[in-house]
Predict the 3D structure of the following.
Amino acid sequence: MGLLPALLGLIWPACGQDGIGGLPVPAMMDLARIERPSTPNTYLAAPAGFAPAPDKITAFTADPDRLYAAIKRVALGQERVFLHVAYDEQRQVHFVVRSAAANFPDLVMAAVTPQGGLVLWSRSVYGRKDFGVNEARVNAWIAAVEGELAKN
């Protein structure tokens, strides 16, 4: 870890940690009870009709187990992504993504519904704004999942 993350860790403790360090293990999330913060530092993708209203509609027709395996492969194939906890029986997985320069942590939850819908929620731990990082991440992961599913 560099000097900048170490210094930022004095203010924001999780910045001074590696991987999932400094962040509590998330409990399994009840998808029907997601509460979005008032700050503009999250991005939610989900199937049509999902509540709360997503920023992006996802539409997948893959088998739920196949979709779940694809999102896990895609996420873990990215740089600075760390598996935080996986609830495989419920097809829900949580990741920590670290920024390159300052080691800021973002949290990403991916879940596959029994109908094969993908819910992907990326959010910043610190700060009020995310400068479009969460949106870009969600869109890139969705495109990569589509590519993964097209291979087979």
